[in-house]
Amino acid sequence: MPRRDLGLSLHVRIIAVLSAVLGGGAILLGLAAWQSTTLAAQQAYDRLLAGGTIQIAENVYVQGNVVTVDPPVAAISTLAAYDMVFYKVIDPRGVVVAGYEDLTSLANSEAIRRGVVIEDGQYQGRKVRIATLAKQIEHASPGSWATIVVAQTVNARGALARDLATKAFLVIGAMSVLALLAVGFAVRFALKPLAQIEQEITRRRPEDLRPIQARPPLEIPAALSRCRTG
After folding, report:
1. Residue 186 to residue 198: CA distance in whole angstroms
2. What is the rounded distance in angstroms from the CA atom of residue 96 to the CA atom of residue 92?
3. CA 149/CA 98 separation, integer angstroms
4. If DSSP codes are grouped into helix, strand and coil, which group holds residue 122?
5. Half-sphere exposure in the Cβ direction for 67 (13 Å, CA)
6. Phi and psi (nearest 5°) for 89?
């Protein structure tokens, strides 16, 4: 088919429109997949971080009127297996009894008494997620709370999000290609009666005025009848 006639081809027009629709849908699905995989990775690692923070809090106790901590090696090792981990424990007086003194948290003091609060932050030039929890010290004066702060870098969760998103993109891409192939086959099958009519007309001599034997699609006679009545 000459290139100038491609724009007049029903087959080309239909395939072009459906390709644009499928392409736009694939892009939207890709963006949705990226957001959902990022959120899933964030939630998974946040649960792990919150669990580690709770385990550290459970090992904070009073010994000789002094708040001390026995860091759970298993919890810290689990967190450190994926990223760098930093923590500190502050006694009710505001004194750091363990960990990194310059590790800070902006979590609300009332909120951390109700449960673990997780926020984004920066530490030692690295992007981190910071979990903060307050624990009431039973053997200290009433209303005494120790604060536990745990920070974890975000490299592993980013890698997990990219891995999940890549797999989702491959599935979306494969489904889009299959859908486009199916559409191409369906369009060719739907336009087959018009191709048969074209072939019959092409084989005839100019003086052959017999009726066309190939049956046109139902839509064509209906359109012609409407044109005649109009």
Report:
1. 19
2. 10
3. 10
4. strand
5. 26
6. -125, 130
* Residue scoring higher pLDDT (214 or 124): 124
More confident residue, 142 or 62: 62
pLDDT of res. 194: 67
User: What is d(CA 112, CA 214) in angstroms, rounded to the nearest whole number?
Assistant: 79
What's the number of CA atoms in the CB half-sphere (13 Å) around residue 85? 22
How many of the other CB atoms lie within 10 Å of CB of 91? 21
- Cβ-in-10-Å burial (0-12, 13-18, 19+) of 193 comes to middle
Phi, psi (degrees; rounded to nearest 5) at 96: -75, 120
Which are the contacts of 75, defined by CB distance < 8 A and separation ≥ 6?
A: 51, 52, 55, 56
Q: What does the chain come to in residues?
A: 230
Residue 118 contacts residue 24 (beta carbons within 8 Å):
no
Tens of pLDDT, residue by residue over 20-53, are: 888 888 899 999 999 999 999 999 999 999 999 9
Residue holding tokens 């926020």?
119
- Phi, psi (deg, nearest 5) at residue 44: -65, -45
The Cα angle at residue 210 between residues 205 and 213, in degrees rounded to 5: 100
**DSSP annotation of 107:** -
Q: C-alpha 81: how far from its chain's center? A: 24
pTM of the model: 0.71
Query: How is residue 27 written in tokens?
Result: 């892009």
